[in-house]
Amino acid sequence: SSAHGGVGVGVHPARVRSFKGGRINRGQVEGATGLFCGMPRERVRSLVPHHPFDLPGTRSPHDLVGRAAMAMSSLRECAPDLLLAGHLHRPGIGTTAERHDFDGHSAIVVQAGTATSTRGRGARNSFNLIHVDRCDIAIDRFDWLPMQKAFELDSTCRFSRRDGAWVPAGDAGA
User: Fold this and answer.
1) Strand order of the sheet with strand 45-49?
2) Is 151 helix (H, G, I), strand (E, B) or coil?
3) Do residues 93 and 139 touch, judged by C-beta distance below 8 A?
4) Which helix (H) or strand (E) holds 54?
5) What is the signed CA dihedral for 104, 25, 1, 50, rounded to 10 degrees?
6) Tens digits of per-residue pLDDT, 68-98?
7) Residue 96: which region, alpha, beta or left (left: phi > 0; alpha: psi -120 to 50)?
8) Confidence at 2, pLDDT banded by 50, 70, 90
9) What's the CA gap between 80 and 59, in Å, rounded?
10) Is 72 helix (H, G, I), strand (E, B) or coil?
11) Which of 24, 70, 92, 160 could pair with 13 in a Cys bridge, judged by C-beta atoms 3.0 to 4.6 Å apart?
């Protein structure tokens, strides 16, 4: 949560029989939506599932949690500002505008890498540090550099809220 009254909602989509992909249910989505709909729009809303509901870029839909389409459709009315997920051990940042129409609203999708696992899936170990303000969000990605035996800042992605949509800061087309 931010100093400006944001809220984060965690959901646990892992299921015993389908742990690898996870599966979200309508009750979990309705619980998150109920919290988000009850908040003023200027507050930053974060949804934190382990398994991703959406992914930046062109990743396979098979990487998404089971019933992701239902979840994203249900979140349309009171959509989160941030979707923070892990599970895949590969970092990435984008927006829901790449795939979903939320009536002009979009959320920032932050896919975490892995900080300590040896299952990096070809990516360096990394973690994200997210700075949140009402209308500005910056995501710093720190990568592990084995020779230095330290995490160092690799990149920063900045987003600004414009008319309910989160757009890359400096994006003239928004």
Assistant:
1) 7-11, 45-49, 82-85, 108-111, 92-95
2) strand
3) yes
4) none
5) -100
6) 777 777 777 788 898 888 877 788 898 888 7
7) alpha
8) very low
9) 21
10) helix
11) 24
Residue-by-residue DSSP string for 90-134: --EEEEGGGT--BTTB--EEEE---SS-S--TTS--EEEEEEE-S
- 36-40: long-range contacts, CB 8 A cutoff, minimum separation 24: 36/7, 36/9, 36/75, 36/78, 36/79, 36/80, 37/77, 37/78, 39/7, 39/78, 40/5
By the 8 A CB rule, do 80 and 32 touch? yes
Cβ atoms of 87 and 22 within 8 Å: the answer is yes
Give the CA angle between residues 174, 33, 73 to the nearest 5°. 60
